[in-house]
Structure formats: structure tokens, C-alpha cells
Amino acid sequence: MANLEKRRLKVSTGSLPSDKTALETLPFHHPFVSQASLSGLLVDVVFPENITLANALSKLETRYVKGRTRLSVIVVNGDSFGSGEVTMLTTNTVGSSQDVWCIDPRGVLSLCVCKETYESLGIVGKPLPFKGRSDQHDHDRIPELSTTKDAEVRQVRCKKRESTDVYIPSSSLGARPTLAGSKGKKPASYEDEIEDWNRDLMDLFEWAGLAALNSPRISARDRADPYIAVYEPPQPSSVGNVTHLCWRGLLAPTFVHTIIEQTCKSIESQASTAQKPIFAFITVHGVTTIPISYLSPGGEGKEAQAFVRLPRQDTEDTWSLLVNATPSGGVSWTLLECIGQWDTRWG
């Protein structure tokens, strides 16, 4: 059995409106979100049946363009685009070609090419900083953007699925335990509290993943052979209906931002009068076959920094956001980010 690739997790938490900025900028740090024909990925939103939230999200739609062009044409004619609102990427799959590229929202072209292509181009780049992978080179240059002729415009509309009679967590995730006021000394109970909170966190996100997959394991009617599958939903749970919305296509950061914004607004408007738990999971999958994985926030007078990775199909670049109404009538959020091996974002 092959060894599984190392994956790294990062958990962030916050509340609204105090930590609103972090959510507003989140999609722009992960600028490439795509569909099955490119990388097998999409955007999922899962939540207990909620007509208000479903109506707000299901009407959202966008579009993208797919066509053929030469990279040299994009570079030469790039002056016609100066807004920085366009993203482009090659649909080459790693394996059919080792040379891939993308243009991020900054208007920066990034290429990851094999040694032979690098030497023939005669441009200045640097080897990827991964052991055994230094024969591939990363190179940035800053053109503006261009269009292609005879391009096909593709509409991306929401697809909706309802699952009935499934187990739904009856309680939202509480605040993450902190060491505030402990003056650097961990209370005896802290380790137990953070361990319990992490377990509850993983149970909730596992449930969301199963719901997005329409797994029979969360069905109240499931009678799986315990020798084949054993699953216990987060406790306490109740039986109800779950809505799953998804968008398949090359999705701009502005569109993903709209999904997050509408979700937060809808939950916030219902939080103070909610008679039952109100929450939603937004799961976003990045394009792993391009050299750029993440754009760091740029400070005053500073450009955002791009973090590179080894482009591959079989790797991880996913983030999932839980937005939930709190018992006090507020709204909190928890972000879980996961990246694979050979990604410079976290060292």
C-alpha cells in the first residue's frame, strides 16, 4: 500500500462583525477555484434546510471563458487589460505536459516548466525548493492580460440537492478555548478542553463532507453492516433535511466572496430569532495543477506575495468555512485549511 502524502492543517476562528475583514479577503488569497474538467474540484455549500439561505444562494451564477491561444500572444497583447480582475490558467494536466502557467488577479504570469523548456526559453527563473524537484523552474513576469479569439463562454449556475431524513448536529461549535489571563501558564484543564474542541471540530467537518457526498452513512435509515462501515454523527443530533448547493466552473475570487457574504448575511439576519441551530459549511477546492497556491495579504505600499508549489493532480488544496449562529444571537466562523506536500506556503 502506497504511503499517503503528508498534509498540513490550519484552524482559524472569529466572529462577526469584529473579524469580518478576514472573511472578506479570504477568497482573494486563494484565487484559483475550478471544475471537474480541470482538476476534479468545485465549491460546495451544505446546511440544514433553510429556505431563506437557499433562496439567497441558489440564484447566484457566473461565467468563465475557455479557448485556445498562444502564451506569447497573451504576453505581447497584455496591455489591453489593466483591471487586475481577470485570472487565467492553462488546462494542461500534469503528465501530458510538465509546463503549466497561470495569471493571478495581480496580473502576474507564473510559469512552472521543465528543465528542457527552461533552457530553451532563456528567461531567468529559479528551481523549485523541493528535494528531487529542482529540475522544474518557477518564473514570474508582470504582463497585463489578454483574451482569446473564438472562445467559448460557459455559464456556471447553482445545482441544488435536498437530502431528507438525515442526522443533523443539534449544537453549534463553541468558542475555541484560549489561554487569556493565564499569564503564560496553561491551566490544568486547558489541554483537555482544546482536545475536546478539536474532536468536536473534526466531527462537524467530517459530517459536512459526508453530507456533500450524499453519503448514506448520515441517513437515519442507514443500516450498514458494521463490518463494512461504522459512523456515529456528532452528538446531540436530530433528524431533518439537508440542502447541498454546488457550483462547477472556473470561479473568480469575487464570486466566491459573494457566496460567503450572502451566507453570513442570511445567518446573521436569523441568528437572534433562531429556534434551531443555523449553520452552513462552505468548502472550496483549489486548482492544484498550477504553480501558485496562495497570495499573502499585501501591507501598505507592498505587493501581495505569491507562494509556489509543485503542480500536481493528486495533492491537496482545500479550505472549508463553518459559519454558525451562536446561542447569544451572534455569528461565529471557523476556517479549516488543508494543503499537501511540496507547497511553500507553510514552509
From TrEMBL:
Q: Which domain of life is it from?
A: Eukaryota
Query: Which GO biological process entries does UniProt record here?
Result: endonucleolytic cleavage in ITS1 to separate SSU-rRNA from 5.8S rRNA and LSU-rRNA from tricistronic rRNA transcript (SSU-rRNA, 5.8S rRNA, LSU-rRNA); tRNA 5'-leader removal
GO CC: one term? multimeric ribonuclease P complex
Q: Which organism is it from?
A: Coprinopsis cinerea (strain Okayama-7 / 130 / ATCC MYA-4618 / FGSC 9003)
Q: Name one GO molecular function term.
A: ribonuclease MRP activity
| Name this polypeptide is given | Uncharacterized protein
